[in-house]
């Protein structure tokens, strides 16, 4: 039965091992290493996150919802899984109907190799909601990170627009 | 059953578990080329494994 030469039998074992190591190396250098960014928005009691794999999916509509027209706290985390440091300028802007309405953040970051850094900012929905808004408003949040441009649509639902902008009669009574 | 066969079985099982874990965690981050290369290497791995056992006479 075992009439084959040991050297030839070992060749198949070496090839099996080489394939296995190749698969591991591909997962490490192509799957694990690279640049990964995560956007988290907290509004009231709800927290929503856009993960790195969601950014890669162009078919996925990047959306963030808030049912509380209050302060929205954003955090943009950069995970640099590379052997070199990552230096870029993070520019965050707010758009509506393809027109820029506000510059939110402009910050230079320097993330060391295999390190993380976070850029945070707040947007008060009450400052940007138009006075004639009825039920909801939408904005586009753009994050320019070097060559990467991240776009997220922010849906702000107004539960009761009358309470948000009281009529003049109520203000006179105060 | 020989102890070495049991140890071989454990070793193969842990290797498959490790590759499975890596696949679940990181395959979503692979590029298209990386996915094709991984698929080809996996096919080649099982092909050589089958050839090895064939030469053994199993």
Helix count of chain B equals 2
User: Sheet with the most strands of chain B?
Assistant: none
Regarding quaternary structure, what we see is: heterodimer
Mean pLDDT of chain B: 87
The helix content of chain A is 25-40%
Order of helices and strands of chain A: HEEHEEEEEHEEHH
- The N- and C-terminal alpha carbons of chain A lie at a distance of 100 Å
DSSP summary, beta strand count of chain A: 9
Helix-and-strand structural type of chain B = mainly alpha
Could you outline the blueprint of secondary structure elements for this entry?
The complex is a heterodimer of chains A (174) and B (58).
Chain A: H1 6-32, E1 34-43, E2 46-50, H2 52-56, E3 63-66, E4 71-81, E5 86-96, E6 99-111, E7 115-124, H3 125-128, E8 136-145, E9 148-157, H4 161-164, H5 168-173
Parallel strand pairs in A: 3-9
Antiparallel strand pairs in A: 1-2, 1-4, 4-7, 5-6, 5-8, 8-9
Chain B: H1 3-26, H2 32-56
Structural write-up:
- The complex is a heterodimer of chains A (174) and B (58).
- Chain A has 174 residues and is an alpha+beta fold.
- In chain A, 26% of the residues lie in helices and 48% in strands.
- Chain A is built from five helices and nine strands; from the N terminus they run H-E-E-H-E-E-E-E-E-H-E-E-H-H.
- Chain A has helices at residues 6-32, 52-56, 125-128, 161-164, 168-173, and strands at 34-43, 46-50, 63-66, 71-81, 86-96, 99-111, 115-124, 136-145, 148-157.
- Chain A has a five-stranded mixed beta sheet with strand order 3-9-8-5-6, with no helix packed on it. Chain A has a four-stranded antiparallel beta sheet with strand order 2-1-4-7.
- The longest helix of chain A has 27 residues, at 6-32.
- The model of chain A is unreliable at 169-174 (pLDDT under 50).
- By secondary structure, chain B is mainly alpha-helical.
- Chain B has two helices and no strands.
- Chain B is flat, with a radius of gyration of 15 Å.
- The mean pLDDT of chain B is 87.
- The A-B interface holds A 1-2, 4, 8-9, 12-13, 15-16, 19-20, 22-24, 26-27, 30-32, 34, 36, 52-53, 56 and B 15, 19, 22-23, 25-31, 33-34, 37-38, 41-42, 44-45, 48-49, 51-52, 55-57.
């Amino acid at each position: 039965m075992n009439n084959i030469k040991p050297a030839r039998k070992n060749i198949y074992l070496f090839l099996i091992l080489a394939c296995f190591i190749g698969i591991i190396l591909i997962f490490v250098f192509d799957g694990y290493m690279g640049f990964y960014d995560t956007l988290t928005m907290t509004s009231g009691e709800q927290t929503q996150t856009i993960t790195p794999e969601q950014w890669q999916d162009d078919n996925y509509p990047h959306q963030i919802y808030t049912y509380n027209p209050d302060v929205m706290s954003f955090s943009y985390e950069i995970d640099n899984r590379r052997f070199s440091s990552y230096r870029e300028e993070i520019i965050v802007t707010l758009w509506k109907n393809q027109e820029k309405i506000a510059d939110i953040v402009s910050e230079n970051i320097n993330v060391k190799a295999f390190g993380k850094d976070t850029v945070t900012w707040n947007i008060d929905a009450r400052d940007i909601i138009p006075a004639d808004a009825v039920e909801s408003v939408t904005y586009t949040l753009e994050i320019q990170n070097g060559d990467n441009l991240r776009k997220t649509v922010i849906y702000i639902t107004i539960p009761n627009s009358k309470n948000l902008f009281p009529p003049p009669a109520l203000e006179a009574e105060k | 059953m020989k102890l070495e066969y049991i140890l071989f079985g454990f070793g193969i099982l842990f290797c498959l578990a490790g590759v499975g874990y890596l696949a679940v965690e990181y395959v979503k981050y692979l590029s298209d080329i990386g996915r094709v290369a991984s698929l080809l290497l996996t096919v080649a791995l099982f092909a050589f494994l089958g050839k090895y056992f064939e030469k053994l006479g199993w």
